[in-house]
Amino acid sequence: MGSIKFGPWKRVWKIWAPPRCRFFIWLVLHNRVWTADRLARKNLPHPEACPLCDQEEETINHLLIGCVFAREVWTIILHHLGVLHLVPQPWNVRFSSWWRKSVAAAPREARKGLNSLIILVAWELWKHHNACVFEKKRPSIHDVLRSVSMEGGLWCSAGASRLHQLVSRSLTSLV
Questions:
Q1: Number of Cβ atoms within 10 Å of the Cβ of 60
Q2: How far apart are CA 24 and CA 157, in angstroms?
Q3: pLDDT tens across 61-93, in order?
Q4: Over 80: is that where the pLDDT of 7 sits?
Q5: pTM, full prediction
Q6: Are residues 20 and 33 in contact, defined by beta-carbon separation less than 8 angstroms?
Q7: Which of 7, 127, 167, 168 is packed most tightly, with the most Cβ within 10 A?
Q8: CA distances (Å), 34 to each of 1, 16, 128, in order?
Q9: Quick one: how far is CA 138 from the chain centroid?
Q10: What DSSP string runs through 98-129?
């Protein structure tokens, strides 16, 4: 009584990921990330188009699963894991529903590791987006894959055992 129901709380707070990444995903799921669409609503300066693909308006759902750049990153990573059927498709418009369906379609023993991986890749896509916006870097799929591989290794070393089980033989071959 007096509380607000938040369906994916277990996928956010009960999965191994650094607290800042879990908080970022919580913001994503509540549509509270400062992307161009939110900046525009507050009449603040914002880019006209996604800095990664320069094709559509920048929203958090676009940046994480709708952008052709992001879909290419997901395709490469999920292909290496042998779960290509989980790649976000153009008709997937909400990150939260794609995530829920992907985890439900994964084998039960891989779900916790997949949840950590999805948080990791979303975090690295966001960091790369920020580097493109604030440091004027050019979008590079190779850079994102390298970051996912390096950060994923650190997460595994720090205790993400389910992520380690999922990617132990795959992430090192990404770059």
A1: 25
A2: 21
A3: 999 999 999 999 999 999 998 889 999 998 888
A4: no
A5: 0.88
A6: no
A7: 167
A8: 31, 25, 15
A9: 19
A10: HHHHHHHHS-GGGHHHHHHHHHHHHHHHHHHH
